[in-house]
Amino acid sequence: MSRRTASISSDYFEALYEGGRDPWRFASSAYERDKYAATLAAIGPERIGRACEVGCAIGIFTQALAGQCASLLAVDAADNALIQARDRCAELTNVTFQRMCIPDDWPSGSFELIVFSEILYYLVPDDIRLAAKRSLRSLSAGGRVVLVHWTGETDYPVTGDEAATLFLEACGGRVTALRHERQEAYRLDVVQAEISAN
Question: Is this prediction's pTM over 0.85?
């Protein structure tokens, strides 16, 4: 299977979500449900001050993560996805949504947690490295990054394993690995910033 040679544009995602569609069955898939549960378990039960979810899609995981966060910024490249996400999370006053095309766009401020769930493999290697560098600058001391990626075949610029490896390599020695977990269809990595990531 030939791979794309450029990061996938927002137009691709706008078309997928057009008309309120759920292209990956986020709301009904057993795979998604189990992956969300594993991601929350990896994050742990402790209260999080400020968090960022990159690639929030239609807000299914956003809704679950919000219960652990004082403040959650959820971003996505597709307005059509954000319409659904805002509707789903309308009663959650601690959640803010923004349209962003990561890594060229990047949220301001610092975060105790940044989650990339099935998003980095849409980017070419240089963009993944840039996302890693910007994540490090945005993490508060001791802040964590969670990476979750499907490991099956696609035509995306990189595989799930390549995306995680590129991101972690770009972080260099500035993070400590807390968790690496492989399931049949995805991998999950959690890293923590050193005392000061800035």
Answer: yes
CATH class of 30-193: alpha beta
Sheet holding 69-76, edge to edge: 95-99, 69-76, 48-54, 111-117, 139-150, 186-193, 175-182
CA 155 vs. chain centroid, Å, equals 19
Integer Cα distance of 50 and 73 in angstroms: 8
Burial class (CB in 10 A: 0-12, 13-18, 19+), 38: middle
Q: How far is CA 182 from CA 60, 81, 124, 161, 175, in A?
A: 22, 28, 23, 10, 20
**What is the chain's mean pLDDT, rounded?**
95
Domain ranges of the chain: 30-193
- Taking 60 as the threshold, does the pLDDT of residue 196 lie above it? no
Q: How far apart are CA 3 and CA 92, in angstroms?
A: 39
